[in-house]
Specification:
The protein has 16 helices and 4 strands. It is mainly α. Among the domains are: 159 residues, no CATH class; 124 residues. The longest helix has 38 residues.
């Protein structure tokens, strides 16, 4: 059971097990709103106002579209609902009583594992039939090679599995959505959702391999159709997981399983896009869209759950991935022409992250990412044959300039608000130590080298660090914790300058 649900707010085990019909009704209502499909929601189970009245509900519930993120909250015993009402809804905002969620989870879990078992039994039966057909080949086909016969039967089996997958996947996806809402670390439910995407991926790979041999229009049309289905499935999955990651659910916003799931979906999607476009997602509008959407999700999740290590780690991966460093082949480094749009996009990300950090001076994970990103922005992009030339020098120059602007603003805010947060001073001590720093590690263990810039700027930064630190020690002389943070920062700085 989820730690997000306190025992006092959940019904007893006797009530849970003795009302299977009610559990199923609640499940149907929640599953339809969490994972919209062709199944409609009973209108009697929804209240579209935070203050339900006795008036009849609308004939069609206002379900949000698939690409709209849900914002979900749990209700305790202090918010009772009218009879036959299972959750509150206002647009894309959903409020679910904890007791109702437990009842839905009981039915979802049973439905999910029963469905998995039936699918495994069907696959075993299909494999048995396949082996029987291989053994009973007529003598007329004996001249046909074993590999050709196996391929023919495998193709027939693949088509049967495709039909079965389409029939079963929606119900099991709905069940897994309820299970992950109850417990975001339910690996079996998350892995099944990966399995569905993998199925589409394998189908697409198979059709593409056939298309290399068969250049007919029918083959191209089939490949295009399955690629579009795969793309829509990935978009739907991202909308689903982003809804959980950005809702006011304390465990979900910092769930390693959900963040890893989002990263996996992006990786598989990017692999397919790379096969289509040749250069992957990098360098086109998809790259900007992925980074923009990911940044929004991370900033909201970090707001919901402070010091959200997993969210910021995901953003570290995403900025490297969209820059070409996380995909096979990466960026085409032979073209050293300076890309102005690329730098503009990176500066926009830097500005948003900087503003977030200045509003959250105590969030060590956010400041650690800012430190990483400053280094990432000014880091040299070494070409395929080595060296830093042409446009890459311009990139590094502008990156260093932006870093100096950010560091100056952090110093100004620290002086103005007299900040003694350890996260701020860890940031300041590293950027002030400059190129001589024995660079600290960020949240993911990656060295965060924020050195660079001209020697004059480095010297100014070091001098300002020492003066500001000394002044704040005098201001907070009686505050033991603040003095300990400030002295610790200057001691580290003196060792690593």
């Amino acid at each position: 059971m989820s730690r997000a649900l306190d025992p006092s707010s959940t019904p007893s085990s006797h009530i849970l097990l003795s009302n299977p019909a009610q559990n199923q009704e609640i499940y149907n209502s929640l599953a339809a709103i969490l994972s919209p499909s062709s199944v409609s929601v009973p209108t009697s189970s929804i209240s579209t106002s935070s203050h339900p009245t006795s008036s009849p509900p609308p004939s069609h519930s206002p379900l949000p579209p698939n690409n709209t993120l849900l914002e979900i909250e749990f209700l305790g015993k202090s918010h009772p609902l009218p009879p036959n009402t299972h959750f509150l809804q206002d647009g894309n905002h959903i409020a679910i009583p904890k007791a109702k969620l437990v009842q839905a989870f009981i039915h979802a879990r049973r439905l999910f594992f029963d469905g998995l078992k039936s699918r495994l039994d069907a696959q075993f039966h299909s494999q048995f039939q396949l082996q029987s057909q291989l053994k009973s080949q007529s003598s007329d086909n004996e001249r046909q090679s074993e590999s050709e016969r196996t391929e023919s039967l495998n193709e027939s089996e693949r088509q049967k599995q495709a039909l079965q997958c389409q029939d079963d996947e929606e119900e099991l996806l709905r069940a897994s959505a309820v299970m992950l809402l109850m417990d975001p670390e339910h690996l079996t439910a998350a892995n099944y959702r990966k399995r569905i995407i993998t199925f589409y991926f394998n189908q697409l790979t198979h059709l593409q391999s056939q298309g290399d041999q068969d250049a007919s229009k029918a083959s191209d049309a089939a490949t295009t159709a399955i690629r579009e289905a795969f793309k829509q499935r990935c978009k739907r999955e991202l909308a689903f997981v982003d809804g959980y990651l950005t809702s006011r659910l304390h465990r979900h916003t910092k769930s390693p399983t959900l963040w890893a799931h989002r990263r996996w979906v992006l990786g598989v999607w990017g692999e397919v896009e790379g096969k289509v476009a040749g250069a992957g997602l990098e360098g086109n509008e998809n790259e900007n869209e992925l980074l923009e959407d990911g940044l929004k999700v991370v900033l909201v999740a970090a707001e919901r759950h402070s010091r959200n290590y997993y969210a910021w780690l995901h953003l570290r991966w995403l900025v490297q991935y969209t820059n070409g460093n996380g995909r096979e082949g990466g960026r085409d480094n032979n073209d050293n022409e300076y890309d102005e749009k690329e730098m503009e996009r990176k500066i926009k990300v830097l500005e948003r992250v900087k503003q977030w950090c200045l509003q959250h001076p105590g969030d060590t994970s956010g400041w650690s990412f800012l430190q990483f990103y400053l280094d990432f922005l000014g880091r040299s992009q070494v070409g395929a044959v080595g060296g830093t030339v042409g446009g890459e020098e311009e990139k590094e120059k502008q990156g260093n300039e932006q870093r100096d602007v950010v560091v100056k603003e952090v110093f100004a805010c620290t002086r103005s608000f007299k900040w003694t947060h350890e996260s701020v001073w860890v940031f300041l001590r590293v950027v002030s130590a400059g190129d001589g720093a024995g660079h600290g590690s960020g949240d993911d263990g990656v060295d965060d080298n924020s050195g660079g810039g001209g020697n004059g700027e480095v010297e100014k930064r070091r001098k300002e660090f020492e003066e500001l630190n000394s002044w704040l020690i005098g201001v907070y002389g009686g505050d033991e914790k603040a003095v300990r943070v400030l002295r610790g920062a200057v001691e580290w700085y003196l060792k690593n300058e």
